[in-house]
Amino acid sequence: MFICAFCNLQIISETMFISHMKLRHKTLMRTTCYCPYKNCSRSFHDCYTYKKHVNLKHITNVEKTVAQSESITENVTTENESITEKDNYLCNTSIQDNIDITCTSKPCTNETLVQPSNAISVENFSHLVDQRISVFVAKLYADPGIPRSFVSNLIEKLNTLYSATFIEMLKQKYNSERCSGLQSDLGLMFSIVQNAFNNFLTENKMLKYFENLNVLIKPKSIVVNASLKSRLVNGRRQIIACNIEIEIISIKSVLQRFLELPNVLNSICHI
User: Fold this and answer.
1) What is the DSSP letter of 223?
2) What is the tens place of the pLDDT at every residue in 62-78?
3) Element (DSSP H or E) covering residue 20
4) How confident is the model over 191-250, as pLDDT tens digits?
5) Packing angle, helices 203-212 and 122-142, rounded to 10
6) CB burial class (10 A; 0-12, 13-18, 19+) of residue 187?
7) Residue whose C-alpha is closest to residue 33's, from 41, 43, 25
8) Which of 199, 89, 87, 92 lies closest to 147 in space, CA to CA?
9) Among 38, 32, 29, which residue's Cα sits nearest to residue 3?
10) In sequence order, what E strands does the chain have?
């Protein structure tokens, strides 16, 4: 586990640590930093020497073994590390409000989170799985410290891991021991969980799904300038004008979505 020397954020891997530094502290990467780990006060002239120090002194052998076995993080490319404002247009809080959370007035316990199995219908179970998966995916894409290619790869591997492996094994075991020939609610619930990530296997599916839920705030393109560039048109090189655009997200849209959340307006009116 890496700890950022400038903001003390805990980061799970070396690759993610470098991405975090480039995104959050790019101007400080070549400046002096101090080791934030307990009982260590060494200083370093840049973040790269600090990273080597952490690997040698503070990362345990167990953590190194786990990190080496995580092929997902090793295969992440750095081409998507430069995340612009265009990448942050998921209205994460708008999705969160779709979940019926009743734990605001009292602490959530295992009793409040886990209901008796006979009290959950197939329809309610499907709705619950859909909501929780949506929030999980939205939080991943909304985090500026995680490259979008990594999120897509992670979702694909998670889907393969438990959908095509664990759930399929449970379904086969359940079907082999089932006495009745009718499909019960439990069998339907297995299928719901198995297909939970179907709407998020690609980025286009994810954007389409959130757009249908009306929780996606897309950026708008605005032409701010133009430049002359040489292009081949019908086999002949010509000088044409190309628009220079920027992507913006309307603060009005963000505030509107925020104030539409349940009880938000009532909560801030008395401030």
Assistant:
1) E
2) 344 444 444 433 443 33
3) helix 14-24
4) 777 788 888 888 888 888 888 888 888 888 888 888 888 888 888 888 888 888 898 888
5) 120
6) middle
7) 43
8) 87
9) 38
10) 2-3, 10-11, 33-34, 43-44, 220-233, 236-248
- In degrees and rounded to multiples of 5, residue 216 shows phi and psi of -105, 125
Alpha helices (runs of H) in 118-250, residue ranges in sequence order: 122-142, 148-158, 168-177, 185-194, 203-212
| Residue with token string 């101007």 | 27
Please report, for residues 65, 82, 164, 187, 192, the alpha-carbon distance to residue 49 in angstroms, rounded to integers and kept in the order given. Answer: 22, 22, 42, 54, 48
Of 121, 111, 94, 132, the closest CA to residue 256 belongs to 94
Instruction: Measure the CA–CA gap between 17 and 7, rounded to whole angstroms.
Output: 12
The phi-psi region of residue 92 (left if phi > 0; otherwise alpha if psi is between -120 and 50; otherwise beta) is alpha
Q: Hey, what are 247's tokens?
A: 């992507």
- Listed in sequence order, the DSSP H helices in 143-202 are 148-158, 168-177, 185-194
- 46: number of CA atoms within 13 Å, CB side? 8
Tokens matching residue 51: 């990273």
